[in-house]
Design a protein that fits this description.
mainly beta, Lipocalin, ten-stranded antiparallel barrel, 1 helix, elongated
């Protein structure tokens, strides 16, 4: 994976890390403020907490992979009967590295998106098309450095979701999304320079939901997420496919 040895100064790394942390904090604050305050009194809020233990398989010019125990949240707030906003994020720690990632000592995966939905509904189903902004990041620590070697992709995404109420208690949910014009970035502070590259992403999920109490449901599904980064002068191209079952609990609120 490495061809040359150049690096950032500690000051440059600290400034970059602080800037990224500030960006994540700003996005989270804005998402929360919009979702909570930008809705009429009759709006409805959906909150889902989930656990997604997944396995990532690497392809392309590299091989191997790892496992991630990810926890996540989705907040969805209707603005009108036809429009809604949503925020979703997943964060987890890596383990069990193999292939080119063999020797990893720690690592983390993170993903978030903020989306605007156009919705259509009947008495038994709800369908939406959405557009949003997203970021996904995977980083692993190797013995060569205490800092993560990281791939990051940011940009817009488009997608659709569908919910079909099978009965009073049961529902089926489908979702798919794809990245549009994403920007990729490879970095390994202190070891290799930060380089921009191309990036790809798509995601899908299917799940069933059981309403066990008023406004509460349990969710069981399967989720897959694909990402890819192109080659740059000091980094090889790769594809990454993360899949696994999802377990969640959902609460509906006014």
């Amino acid at each position: 994976m490495m061809q040359t040895r150049t690096g950032w100064t500690p000051q440059e790394h600290t400034q970059s890390r602080r800037a990224r942390h500030r960006g994540v904090i700003v996005v989270a604050i804005l998402a929360t403020a919009v979702l909570v305050t930008a809705s009429p009194a009759a709006a409805e809020t959906m909150i889902q907490l989930r656990y997604w233990p997944n396995t990532t398989t690497i392809g392309g010019d590299m091989t191997g992979g790892w496992q991630t125990a990810a926890v996540g949240v989705t907040l969805r707030r209707s603005l009108t009967p036809d429009w809604a906003l949503s925020f979703e994020g997943d964060w987890g720690s890596q383990s069990n590295w193999s292939g080119n990632w063999l020797g990893g000592t720690s690592g983390s995966d993170a993903y978030w998106s903020l989306n605007l939905h156009r919705t259509w509904g009947t008495h038994s189903s709800t369908f939406s098309l959405f557009a949003g902004y997203m970021q996904m990041r995977s980083g692993t620590v190797f013995p060569a450095s205490p800092l993560q070697q990281t791939f990051r992709a940011t940009g817009f995404r488009l997608g659709a979701d569908y919910q079909w109420r099978l009965s009073h208690n049961w529902s089926l949910m489908l979702m798919g999304a794809v990245g549009v014009g994403l920007n990729g970035e490879n970095s390994w502070p202190g070891v290799l320079p930060t380089e921009t590259t191309s990036a790809q992403y798509y995601e899908y999920s299917v799940s069933v939901s059981y309403a066990f109490a008023a406004d509460w449901s349990l969710d069981l599904g399967y989720r897959g997420m694909y990402s890819a980064g192109g080659a740059s002068p000091n980094y090889m191209s790769f594809t990454a496919t993360s899949t696994g079952f999802v377990f969640g609990v959902t609460r509906m609120m006014p």
